[in-house]
């Protein structure tokens, strides 16, 4: 029974064409030493620059999840093959040229279909569906990527954008996995793609690797703690105020840590937390700065998503409260 399932869920690229409509001169695809193909910047890119916008060439509604085992691979294979057969020959050829990793056991199955590992190693969750993006699939993995990506439901596109300045000729990397894990944990996840990660974080000397591992675990723990306390609240008692000061300080350290570790997928979430905790201690200047940073990133991802709407409200609330306080202070200075 278990043999019919593969750890499909874990293999889907998560943790970021057929009609790529980003300007094609932004990137080039060529061989990358030790990695097959890779995507390289053709021009200098600033943070926020859009690198690719791609609609999925194959999109399927996955069969139900089986806890601990992911999706039934055979069922996924049938759905993918069905769509694949309807595609033009050049699209089929593009898909079949993508990297795939499968075990010998898998290959020896009588119903083995090469399309299945290709889909497993290159597809992304896209809303409630799973999509294959052949151009984005050419981007290699790094645990310290220089881009991030998101799925825009309304546009039916996955969008890749720079998260730090990228020089001409520099390789573009995304992350295939959630990044707040130690290097050993990350490699375990990446084994399913059949490669050993040699990114800056994984290839660093032991000392740097240990401090990076420690920082990633701390970031994960800190996010969990701050999310638990993240309801906007006005401090009522002295002890509460002191606690809120500590939380605000922790949120600042969290932002420093994610920026230092360059785990851009978490920037928006951490800026939001810093905004909330600085609003809680009435540090409106800092709160509005973090709120705007988070809002900007969410806007880029999807202007209409609930997360963007929430950040818009929060930013407006912080600015309005700040303005009110400034006016009240000005009035009290006039009268006293
Ligand atoms: Zn790595």
TrEMBL record:
Which CDD domains would you find in this protein's record? SET_SMYD (cd20071)
Domain (SET) ranges: 24-177
Q: Which UniProt keywords apply?
A: Signal
Tell me where the signal peptide lies: 1-17
InterPro entries assigned to the protein according to its UniProt record, in alphabetical order: SET_dom (IPR001214), SET_dom_sf (IPR046341), SET_domain_protein (IPR053185)
Name this protein carries in UniProt: SET domain-containing protein
**Organism, per UniProt?**
Lophiostoma macrostomum CBS 122681
Q: What is the lineage of its organism?
A: Eukaryota, Fungi, Dikarya, Ascomycota, Pezizomycotina
């Amino acid at each position: 029974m278990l043999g019919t399932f593969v750890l499909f869920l874990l293999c889907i690229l998560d943790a970021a064409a057929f009609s790529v409509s980003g300007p094609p001169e932004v990137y080039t695809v060529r061989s990358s030493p030790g990695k097959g193909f890779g995507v390289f910047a053709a021009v200098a890119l600033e943070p926020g620059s859009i690198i690719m916008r791609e609609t999925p060439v194959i999109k399927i509604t996955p069969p139900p999840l089986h806890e601990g085992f992911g999706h039934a691979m055979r069922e996924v294979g049938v759905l993918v093959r069905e769509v694949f057969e309807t595609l033009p020959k050049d699209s089929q050829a593009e898909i079949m040229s993508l990297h795939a990793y499968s075990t010998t056991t898998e290959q020896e199955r009588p119903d083995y279909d090469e399309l299945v590992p290709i889909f497993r190693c290159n597809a992304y969750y896209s809303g409630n569906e799973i999509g294959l993006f052949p151009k984005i699939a050419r981007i290699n993995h790094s645990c310290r990527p220089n881009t991030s990506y998101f799925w825009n439901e309304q546009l039916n596109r996955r969008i890749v954008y720079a998260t730090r300045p990228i020089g001409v000729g520099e390789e573009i990397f995304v992350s295939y996995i959630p990044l707040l894990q130690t290097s050993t944990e990350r490699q375990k996840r990446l084994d399913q793609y059949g490669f050993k990660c040699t990114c800056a974080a994984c290839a660093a000397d032991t000392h740097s690797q240990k401090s990076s591992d420690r920082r990633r675990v701390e970031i994960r723990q800190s996010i969990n703690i701050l999310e638990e306390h993240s309801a906007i609240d006005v401090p009522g008692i002295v002890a509460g105020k002191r606690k809120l000061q500590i939380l605000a300080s922790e949120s600042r350290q969290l932002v420093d840590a994610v920026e230092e570790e360059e785990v851009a997928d978490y920037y928006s979430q951490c800026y939001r937390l810093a905004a909330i905790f600085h609003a809680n201690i009435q540090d409106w200047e800092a709160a509005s700065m973090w709120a705007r940073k988070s809002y900007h990133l969410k806007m880029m991802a999807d202007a209409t998503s609930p997360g963007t709407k929430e950040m818009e409200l929060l930013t407006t609330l912080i600015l309005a409260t700040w303005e009110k306080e400034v006016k009240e202070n000005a009035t009290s200075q006039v009268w006293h």
